Amino acid sequence: MNRLTVLGCLSGAALCVVAGCSVSSHMHRNFHGYILDFTTPVDSALQAKLERVDADLRGQFGLTTDQAAVGVLDLNTLRLALIHPDREEYAASVPKVGILLAYFQWHPEAATHLNAQTRHELGLMVKASDNERAARFSRELGLKQIQAVLDAYHLYDPDHGGGIWVGKHYGQGAERYGDPVGDHSHAATVRQLLRYFLMLEQGRLVSPAASKTMREIFASPDIPHDPAKFVKGLAGRDVQIIRKWGSWEDWRHDSAVVTGGGRHYILVALTRHPKGDEYLVELARRVDDLIQSANEVLAPSAGG
Q: What DSSP string describes 199-223?
């Protein structure tokens, strides 16, 4: 499969209309056609609230504006808010989402015919963040082939800050391709992680069936969540979370789709600070409160 074939798969992918995709009874009528790109406007009210939350939490935990980037997309109302969305960071384990996508792009039959062992090992890679499994799949696929898929989905754009980059096998290994923007072995931006999870929810990654199976792998109920960051912040709330987190030294990141209790949103935050985990815990709580209260106000017009 070459780049043109991958792009052809993208243009031919139907929207998420099959059973099992994550949908909400409050879904905006334009949800399936919504595109997040570099010109998509933010919602002014949500933007102002997110900026206040970020400023409060950075002040509480001692982060500067250079040490946190955040994005929220409410899928019920298609309201977007972004803080430093195109500032690339070393992303630790977060780009393992790219390995998962590439696996299904290069093995489209896996969407409906995936054996239990491979399903479990992919789950260990993305939910438990197992480096050994990640390296196994990235060596099988090839680093350049993985990045070709990410590039085909425009999940990495060197003209707009970079994005999701997988340039090294996780764990030990000499093969390395630094990304063109920051020379990172593994990189991400807030915007591109939002786009990844948006397309997953829309059923636009590989195919509706593949997106459904990928979402099930993120969920992997037999594998426990790492109880930190967003998961810790949302503990005890009426929500389900699929996510990819990452940590290395002072880089502390989380990215998630949150559903339940009438809400359905994507939250992404990338931090570089020793107290990044504490920031992420409180951010998840504050944003969930914000989304709940805002949706209650906007509920009568959410379909418009």
A: HHHHT-SS-HHHHHHHHHHHH-TTS
